[in-house]
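Lab notebook: predicted structure, single chain.

Context: the supervisor wants predicted structures on file for every construct in the current expression panel, including those that have not yet been purified. This is the next one on the list. No modifications to the sequence; it matches the entry in the shared construct table.
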Amino acid sequence: MSFSKVWIVPVLFVVVGCGSAEESPMDTEAYNGTIAEVDAEARMVHVEVPDEGTMELAFTDTTQVLKNFLEVPFDSLGPNQKVRVEVVETEDQPTPTTVTLLE
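Prediction complete. Output recorded below exactly as produced.
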């Protein structure tokens, strides 16, 4: 095997290992708050977060609702429930990845 063929393997590892910025995971943030309103038809929840105001969260197909570490349906959410919301910033508004019922 010639030297010119040997250096191709390490170069490929570097190129493949770097990936692109678009493929990197987004930063998530978590907020504790109280549900102010639930719009079941639009799959949206308004959460009052101290020092942040009201967050309008549009659920996606991958958003999880958890209670006691178990996944529960969206209709388990209701006004005045204490929640912890994990979101990723996408375009104009935060998108919830996980909503955990704290009560």
